[in-house]
Amino acid sequence: xxxxxxxxxxxxxxxxxxxxxxxxxxxxxxxxxxxxxxxxxxxxxxxxxxxxxxxxxxxxxxxx
Length: 64
Hints:
By secondary structure, the chain is α+β, with helices and mostly antiparallel strands. Helix content is 42%, strand content 12%.
């Protein structure tokens, strides 16, 4: 059986936890998450895939 894709938070959950103007739940809005294969998720976590690129992929998907 295959593996389900990972969910990557573009702005990390810990940022929302530390914010006075947001809640932890705000981190999980669709505008802040992207589905990635495990390899790409690792790259995104270590900064090898730019957040702006990930955000642009979400925008592109919503317009289709």
